[in-house]
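Quick review question:
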């Protein structure tokens, strides 16, 4: 007998200040590569990766802002229909940490409450950290989301971010 496969597709948006590693994270997760000088490709909206989770096939479409955040001009289309969100900041960029709350608000204004995680990227540069571990934990707690410490460069903890979000989305379906 043929059983129709019902595929779950989830749109994930990654927000945060420029240069925190958003595009690199998408490249790493969806293509398995890290290139220092990766040029943002205008016109590529998202990359995708399929995973199985609890016997379910899940297609994650991870959207790239393509640098729009630098002009504070992220289009509605970017957020439209987003079901999960990564709030990203960098270990070596204090401003990016301070900006997390306003990014969360932007996402909430456009998408309502969706499963969200806080990602501290570039933990390979911990020696140059400008954010105390407790501060990051406190922020995560006050935002009501989980904190993942990640190095996109060294491929530390990237997969778990997206698995967690996918699991949260499946629970809500
Ligand atoms: P975006 O503007 O947020 O999309 O950031 P990019 O993905 O363009 O990354 C900005 C810079 O940070 C690039 O030079 C990346 O190679 C670098 N980068 C990204 N992730 C990491 C990381 O985990 N560790 C280190 N050391 N550098 C990273």
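Suggested answer, residue by residue:
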């Amino acid at each position: 007998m043929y059983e129709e496969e019902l595929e779950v597709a989830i749109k994930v948006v990654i927000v945060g200040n420029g240069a925190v590693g958003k595009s690199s994270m998408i490249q790493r997760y969806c293509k398995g590569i890290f290139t220092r000088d990766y040029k943002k490709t205008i016109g590529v909206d998202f990359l995708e990766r399929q995973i199985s989770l609890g016997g379910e096939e899940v297609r994650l479409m991870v959207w790239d802002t393509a640098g729009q955040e630098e002009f504070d001009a992220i289009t509605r289309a970017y957020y439209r229909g987003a079901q999960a969100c990564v709030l990203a900041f960098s270990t070596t960029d204090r401003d990016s940490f301070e900006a997390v709350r306003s990014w969360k608000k932007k996402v909430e204004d456009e998408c309502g409450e969706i499963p969200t995680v806080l990602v501290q990227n570039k933990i390979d540069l911990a020696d140059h950290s400008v954010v105390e571990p407790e501060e990051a934990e406190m922020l995560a707690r006050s935002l009501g989301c989980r904190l993942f410490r990640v190095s996109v460069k060294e491929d530390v903890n990237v997969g778990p971010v997206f698995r967690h979000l996918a699991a949260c989305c499946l629970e809500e379906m």
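Why it works: DSSP finds six helices and six strands in the chain. Helices lie at 22-31, 76-79, 94-98, 100-111, 133-143, 158-172.
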